[in-house]
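From the pipeline queue, job 12 of 40. The input is one protein chain; the requested action is below.

Action: predict structure.
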Amino acid sequence: MEQQLKNDLLLRAARCSPVERVPVWMMRQAGRSDPQYQKIRQDINIPLERLFRTCPTPMSDTDAEWAVKISLLPKRIGVDAIIVYKDILTPLSPMGAHFRFSPGPVLDEPIRTQAQVNALKPVDNPDVQLRYTGCVIQRLRKELAAELPLIGFGGAPLTLAFFLIAGQSPMKRSEGISEKASIVFDMMENSPTLLHLLLDKLTHMTINYLNYQISQGVQIVQLFESIADVLSQQMYETFALPYHQRIFAELNTDTPSILFAKEFPYVNLMQQSGADVLSVGKCVDLGTVKTKFGDTLAVQGNVDNDILRDGTFDDITNAVNTCIEKGGKTGHILNLSHGLHRDTPFENVKHFVRIAKALQEN
């Protein structure tokens, strides 16, 4: 029998059950802006492709130990959940698409032909193909000792397709689409059958990957559609939503699920995915969403991640207070509009968590 969680606020919020306060965590909370993370990376001098396991090298117990240690770093600042330290590109390696980081992700041979799509291997034996991820999850559950819930995640098929086709991150640092990623839009227009073939393979992998994480011990999963902000409504309906629906329909129903669609304004389409929680961006008014769906659908977000990077403590306090008021106490998980910026002051990160709790003290 599984041990009772000491802090199950996140899981209750995801199910729209009563909570004492709104739980808080942050996307990209493990790493990036944390000085302890930067020190660990400098001290161990291990390439990201080994820590993320986006490379074909044999599994290392030492690498897994570091991934566990990094995952747990945010616990010291009081977050209500831990997310596994890995990358959305991790499960592409056993398919034969090995990304290295230089410093961003690089795929030596982008996937753009039917022969290349056909050559991608299925992930039907995750116990072997993704053993590193399972090992990290098991060790995290042991270290957490039922203190906090553990979040697993995967990239949505269209987001992964953008990376595979571009052969690199599809987004520029200025947040615009890269020139190589624009090839995906050409494929949508001129070779939709090929793109759907790729998306179908990625969907099959993602279902197996997320269910494997659940079997190894994660207690909630999040699907990242990180390129949703560059999609039109029609593109989303054609190339994203059907695959979201397939994924959520096939997941273990005992485990809550979150859909994150970066700065996508059509929440009604997101709701059709079948996810238990919708993680919405700053382009969405949280109060309007809660009024429309009530307590039948949980929401996550939507504090502007730019405010955490650029704002004062007062700015952050005001943003958190507004979000809590609009989100209500039931079915709301406090989070950001997107992940933490790499150059976010860590004092601001700590203040975000601290004030989220302080504002709800009675």
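Job complete. The CA atoms of residues 6 and 250 lie 29 Å apart.
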